[in-house]
Amino acid sequence: QVQLVESGGGSVQAGGSLRLSCAASGSIFSISAMGWYRQAPGKQRELVVGIAFVGRTTYADSVKGRFTISRDNAKNTVSLQMNSLKPEDTAVYYCAAAATLSRLLRRDPPTYWGQGTQVTVSS
Description:
By secondary structure, the protein is mostly beta strands.
């Protein structure tokens, strides 16, 4: 099992910035990709960004150029810097981890999830 603990989030006005972090613990050897999904009220959970520990990164078109993911493999953490936030970015953001980036993007089991953190952007 892999445990994911998120931090960050909160409320900000449109155009502002927030930073999310996620720390992984437990069976770290079983994962090689982490990322973020989000779910707005009444909508399905959607990919924000996924990153392989070695290799590529995949961003949703809606956040390209505004959001940046970074990783610290030694600390088993990923961070998401969110700039130029828009009201439509309002959602609960979930950290995710999986054995490969492809599995993370497909949400194949086992995909591990954090508890979620609220991001609210007001206009």
